[in-house]
């Protein structure tokens, strides 16, 4: 049991300059005894209102140095404070506020919400077990208008999809990865580096791009680039929900439409998912 959607804004001041972190936290506990379920005995139950207050107090006392560290702080608190807690899991996601710039000058106390992907993390721990930390990005919408195709696929009597060597590749990406032993990681730096890998693998070089023969191949390229550049990542999961665009037929309007006006196909939509990890992890 636990408390979901604990939402708050943490404001940090350094002189006149302000810093913000707005997050949503979900924290779940498993106790050493199920007596509250089986017997209606609540003597070991930590009220969910208490869970909420603990999260807020930790934000006040410790701040939020990074999403991952805050999730770790929450797990550590419940494990070290309550002997009846056998397992704790905390999920934290961030509202994407960015500092406002005016004529290239960063504003000291104004921010803009930019929906370019939502950062999240999870931390979980069993008593006497290792601390496990995941991080990720979701709702990241990506598009490239060429250098994508889909050809040579299996066909039978039910196939109506034509082959395409030049199409729009667009999708909403979910990416989640796990760390190995969590030492003194700079979680913020690692997250930014992985996000850069995602964008680079999706788009290719800025002057020419890189051809994608399928959504599946793009997903794999993202994973391989992250694993090759970020040694702290052990397993990475990527889901790419596809958005297709159809060219509008304008012949009846007396116009030729050379892929200049397109409409999105809302539903159904395709989805590609893959989980990839280092060999040493699976051997262990």
Automatic annotation (TrEMBL):
GO terms for cellular component: peroxisome. It comes from the Eukaryota. One of its GO terms (molecular function) is urate oxidase activity. The keyword Lipid metabolism does not apply. It comes from Oreocharis arfaki (tit berrypecker). InterPro entries: Uricase (IPR002042). Pathway: Purine metabolism; urate degradation; (S)-allantoin from urate: step 1/3. The keyword Oxidoreductase applies. One of its GO terms (biological process) is urate catabolic process. O2 binds at residues 48, 242. This is Uricase.
